[in-house]
């Protein structure tokens, strides 16, 4: 299937202690991770691919995954948590990834300025208002219990350009900074952050995750947005997250709606 690509022994991880598999090419790292999970692999098993030929995001969208341009990573988690708390795994994955991107841009590229890194609920990370990362979590369920959660993280590291239909909405760290990113080093740093936030979640609950998410996102409170799901659309102001990670939206009529999923778009604030 693949071979050990990165030495993670020196990271002193608390939770993510499974083997790390590198694949030169695969259809989807999430699919490979799911196979490992179904075969009974231990928590923390991870898959990294040099390219994905059928990478995917939420709602069945494709994820552009050219060879050597990005980090395409999937990790197997086995949290003993209620099913309704599973969405928090997406949020903690976003927190870990946003912190890693901020470090890459600020510490290694330009320490004199803050990076415009933003988490867009529920699973996108923006760099200078363009999408630089997408997260896809998939849950294996048995009855009402969680067998495993696959957290798939795709980060645009060294893409030089995107197809025309994505050029206005997608970006990479290279496009924004002019600096190449060493994928393996970035991956190890991300795994370290992910391990830390996953451990915090399991030992302290969701509150610290939600607090840090609010620190890193402009979408948590008071942002005017449009949210689409199915044939339904809501326009209103974000009013925070529930303890389970659902987004609260205040509509024009003052009513609050709780959203578990949806496509969110930032709108100009009303004058």
Tell me what you see in this structure:
Helix content is 25%, strand content 31%. It is of the alpha+beta class. The strands form two sheets. Strands 1-2-3-4-8-7-6-5 form an eight-stranded mixed sheet, sandwiched between helices. A five-stranded antiparallel sheet has the order 12-11-10-9-13, with no helix packed on it.
Give a quick rundown of the structure.
The chain is α+β, with helices and mostly antiparallel strands. The protein is 25% helix and 31% strand.
Notable traits:
271 residues; 31% strand; BirA Bifunctional Protein, domain 2; alpha+beta; single chain; five-stranded antiparallel sheet; SH3 type barrels
Total number of helices: 5
Please, how many domains?
2
Structural class: alpha+beta
Distance between the termini: 57 Å
List strands and helices in order, with pairings:
Blueprint: E1 3-4, E2 20-23, H1 29-38, E3 46-49, E4 70-77, H2 87-107, E5 117-120, E6 124-127, E7 130-142, E8 145-156, H3 173-177, H4 183-204, H5 207-216, E9 221-229, E10 232-241, E11 247-251, E12 256-259, E13 263-266
Parallel strand pairs: 2-3
Antiparallel strand pairs: 1-2, 3-4, 4-8, 5-6, 6-7, 7-8, 9-10, 9-13, 10-11, 11-12
